[in-house]
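Co-chaperone DjlA N-terminal domain-containing protein, pasting as requested.
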Amino acid sequence: MFADLLRRLTDPGPQPLPDADARLALGALLVRLARADGDYSSEEARRIHRILMARYGLDEAEAASLRADCEVMEAEAPDTVRFTRAIKDAVSYEEREAVIEALWEIALADGQRDAEEDALMRMVAPMLGVSDPDSAHARRRAAGRLGL
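Structure tokens follow.
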């Protein structure tokens, strides 16, 4: 399952992803950010779980299953550059902007800005084709939801 998706993500001319694959790829990016500082906390995992539930209308069991698949996908995915560029080519701008907002929510989940997570965000937003102002707006919206 993951090998086929990874192959499609890294093809020179990726096609739009089916919904299930897009969910998996974008969720894996959330996991990648959460793991960036070497500490994938239970709070980050819970927040990813809640984001997946809200974003895709999943129940608890479906979200838990998807998060587990995303964790495996992230571990098997190629480097962030190729992985993120493939998502950019396969997902609409609005969806990518929403992904940046969700990524900021994960990055800010512990109430502080971590250097590794910040560095990954500075790298990922442009690779997803999301402008600096749109990323900044997404960060403010995420911080507002977190009460920061």
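Note for the archive: Residues 5 and 21 are 7 Å apart (CA to CA).
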